[in-house]
Specification:
Largest sheet: 4 strands, antiparallel
Distance between the termini: 91 Å
Strand order of the largest sheet: 1-2-3-4
Strand content: 25-35%
Number of helices: 3
Helix content: 10-25%
Order of helices and strands: HEEEEEEHEEEEEEEEEH
Length: 277
């Protein structure tokens, strides 16, 4: 009799524990889903918004208009949703999004009271395989003159920092950068080509950016796949700098904080370079 009562008690206790455990999981999942919406905000952006951050402003020569570059404070998620607006002074009380320059334009500045110059960062287009043709536009009755921002300056020299043929002999890994000054390291390009073929101007596999190389060393595995070395901070970002229509060669990333935690440029030179210099 006692055994039966104990078994029933244990079964009921287990059932309640299961229910409470499931409720706890549901509450946790609900909390996560709810937190995803904590920083959804209204579409319009006003200077008076509490989450508005003004990064800089530049007046037109006659002070009748102003360029305002801004960001939105996302709280614990950091800063995001940046923009640059071309405004008449009375427009500063309106929704800035109505006067925004496209986000892929940079180095925006006044030429005169009616004209602005802007540079289009071509690196995202190169990675995506999209052809860019500079096209001027008009915002708030101001002409925006657009030109391509090519990070390979005239007079820059191509510097190969790593060159290595795959074990199966089908591919050659080439890592290179462009610089005028060897002491001022520019970002890397990574291409995978047939051995001895011409090196593309821009990387056909990976193109870094001025902030970091994200990949700090790379080589072939025995299976003729690529292995890249990075750190915990940059490893997750590598995927965003891969060329979409890259050669069909698999890659893996190894996080090595002990060796690369403080790096932002690939500085190791490959062993095969002596055969090409």
């Amino acid at each position: 009799m006692n055994l039966i009562i104990y078994c029933v008690y244990s079964s009921v206790t287990l059932t309640f524990r299961t229910i409470f455990l499931r409720k706890g999981i549901y509450i946790l999942v609900l909390g996560v889903l709810t937190s995803c919406n904590l920083y959804t905000r209204k579409e319009e952006v006003l200077i008076t918004d509490k989450d508005f951050i003004e990064n800089y402003r530049e007046l037109s020569p006659d002070s009748s208009m102003v360029l305002i570059n801004y960001s939105i404070d996302l709280g614990a998620f950091g800063v995001g949703q940046s923009g640059t607006s071309i405004l008449k002074i009375p427009d500063t009380t309106k929704n800035l999004r109505e006067f925004n320059i496209p986000n892929n334009y940079t180095q925006v500045k006044w030429i005169d009271n009616q004209n602005i110059s802007a540079m289009y960062d071509i690196l995202p287009s190169l990675r995506e395989g999209v052809k860019f043709e500079p096209k001027d536009l008009e915002i708030n009755k101001i002409k925006v003159h657009v030109s391509a921002l090519d990070y390979i300056d005239q007079g820059s020299q191509q510097q190969i920092v790593h060159r290595e043929v795959s074990p199966n002999g089908r591919y050659e890994l080439v890592v290179y950068r462009y610089s005028k000054d060897i002491n001022n390291l520019n970002f890397i390009h990574i291409s995978v080509i047939q051995p001895g073929k011409e090196i593309p101007k821009y990387g056909n596999y990976f193109i870094a950016d001025p902030q970091s190389d994200y990949v700090f060393y790379g080589t072939w595995t025995r299976e003729s796949e690529l292995v890249f070395y990075s750190n915990s901070q940059d490893a997750e970002l590598v995927q965003y700098y891969l060329v979409q229509k890259r050669p069909k060669v698999n890659y893996n990333i190894i996080r090595d904080d002990q060796k690369y935690s403080n790096k932002y440029r690939w500085i190791e030179r490959g062993s095969d370079l002596s055969n090409h210099e």
